[in-house]
């Protein structure tokens, strides 16, 4: 499922920082000293979220994996997407994505998987909870990643350990994002849960 891809080095970190500086962005927070975790990517409201998030990952020198619709992985961009840590997902059918991701965590000594809770850039009335079930199933924490377009800062927030009480945990997670502004904030509402 996961192929060996890009491992950011000093050169890639420098490129990431240059790209962010050109856009007027800064990196905030630090990667926790944990080998395996799910990192939330929120808000996810614009095509700009991907290159900015990737530049932040480069700047922090972390190898991330992310899921994208399978259309992104066709020629001519497929090889590049996989190299950048992309995992193609067929949204037209159920493929036990949660179980596949849990297995990926079990099979590796180190894995950082980035997941947007909205699952799309479009307006949503609920957050998908796959990220929560992946973290619980793999017994790994959730790190709250963010892109705040108002402050032009992106990076790493608190590390959250799911308790199994999903409604309570999601309220705490969403409280962190209450002050974060997406590029198209009208698409990042106070969504309810869909488990």
Description:
- With 195 residues, the protein is of the alpha/beta class.
- Helices cover 32% and strands 23% of the residues.
- The chain has 6 helices and 9 strands.
- The protein has helices spanning 10-23, 49-59, 78-83, 97-107, 130-138, 166-177; strands at 26-28, 36-42, 65-69, 86-89, 111-115, 126-128, 142-148, 153-160, 192-194.
- The chain has a 7-stranded mixed β-sheet with strand order 1-8-7-2-5-3-4, sandwiched between helices.
- Helix 4 runs parallel beside helix 5 (130-138).
- The radius of gyration is 16 Å and the shape is globular.
- The two termini are 24 Å apart.
How much is the average pLDDT?
Answer: 84
The general outline is globular
The number of E-state strands comes to 9
Structural class: alpha/beta
Low-confidence stretches: none
Q: What spatial order of strands do you see in the largest sheet?
A: 1-8-7-2-5-3-4
Approximate helicity band: 25-40%
What is the CA-atom radius of gyration, in angstroms? 16 Å
Q: Give the oligomeric state of the chains in this entry, treating copies of one chain as homo and distinct chains as hetero.
A: single chain
Distance between the termini: 24 Å
Amount of beta strand: 15-25%
Largest sheet: 7 strands, mixed
Order of helices and strands: HEEHEHEHEEHEEHE
Number of helices: 6
State the gist of this model.
The protein is α/β, with parallel strands linked by helices and 195 residues long. 32% of the residues lie in helices and 23% in strands.
């Amino acid at each position: 499922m996961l192929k060996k891809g890009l491992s950011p080095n000093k050169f890639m970190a420098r490129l990431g920082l240059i790209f962010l500086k050109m856009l007027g962005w800064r990196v905030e927070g630090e990667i926790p000293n944990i080998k395996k975790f799910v990192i939330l990517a929120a808000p996810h409201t614009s095509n700009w979220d991907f290159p900015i998030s990737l530049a932040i990952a480069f700047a922090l020198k972390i190898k991330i994996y992310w899921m994208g619709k399978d259309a992104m992985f066709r020629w001519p961009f497929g090889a590049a997407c996989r190299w950048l840590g992309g995992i193609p997902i067929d949204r037209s059918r159920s493929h036990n994505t949660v179980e596949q991701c849990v297995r990926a965590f079990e099979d590796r000594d180190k894995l950082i998987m980035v997941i947007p809770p909205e699952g799309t850039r479009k307006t949503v009335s609920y957050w998908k909870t796959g990220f929560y079930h992946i973290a619980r199933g793999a017994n790994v924490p959730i790190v709250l990643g963010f892109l705040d377009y108002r402050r032009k800062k992106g990076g790493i927030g608190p590390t959250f350990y799911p308790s199994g009480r999903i409604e309570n945990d999601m309220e705490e997670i969403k409280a962190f994002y209450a002050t974060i502004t997406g590029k198209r904030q009208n698409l990042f509402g106070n969504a309810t849960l869909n488990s």
